[in-house]
Amino acid sequence: MNCRNLLLSLLLILVTLPSQAQPPPQSGPELESLDPEQRRMLEHFERSWEEMPPERKQRVLRNMRRWQEMPQEQRERIRQRGREFSRHDEERRQRIRNNFENFSNLPEAERRDIRQSFRRFQELPEDRRRALFEEFQRRQQDAEPRRPSVQDESPEVNETGTAEE
């Protein structure tokens, strides 16, 4: 029995050694290590930064650097789109998020084709774009399943005033 306990103890020690030999997981860069301008740009993350996974911290920093390198006109377009997005109700914002996620999940070639088609659409004269958009909306409405109205859900009433099932 003593030999068995000794073997189990050794086995337990051996199993835990590799996990202790590994360095602790990286927490990502600390806000204090960033320059003052970067800290100012990330101040809305201040409360959640410590709990944020390292991959997300890296993504936030990468996006911040991209923002810093962007031309001023592009930044202003993004700000404007953000203001427009915030004016939508929650249902519309969720549809936009879902569309973006669906687009992001498409193969690169398909995303490239969609971007190219959109650029061509934007180059059209305003009246042609409006006509195409209205045609698109008409087709979307035709494709949607018709929702029953309250009247459709009520039973038929005959001339005597009784319901027919």
- Oligomer state equals single chain
Rough outline: extended
The low-pLDDT segments are 152-165
Number of helices: 8
Radius of gyration: 30 Å
Summarize model confidence as the mean pLDDT.
80
Quickly give the structural class. mainly alpha
Main beta sheet, described? Answer: 2 strands, antiparallel
Strand order of the largest sheet: 1-2
Number of strands: 2
Q: Report strand %.
A: under 5%
- Give the % helix: 55-70%
Amino-to-carboxy terminus distance: 81 Å
Topology as a string of helices (H) and strands (E): HHHHHHHHEE
What report would you give on this structure?
- The protein is mainly α and 165 residues long.
- 67% of the residues lie in helices and 2% in strands.
- It contains 8 helices and 2 strands.
- The chain has helices at residues 2-21, 36-41, 54-69, 72-87, 90-104, 108-123, 126-143, 150-153; strands spanning 156-157, 163-164.
- It has a two-stranded antiparallel sheet.
- A hairpin with a 5-residue loop joins strand 1 (156-157) and strand 2.
- It is extended, with a radius of gyration of 30 Å.
Write the layout of secondary structure elements.
Blueprint: H1 2-21, H2 36-41, H3 54-69, H4 72-87, H5 90-104, H6 108-123, H7 126-143, H8 150-153, E1 156-157, E2 163-164
Antiparallel strand pairs: 1-2
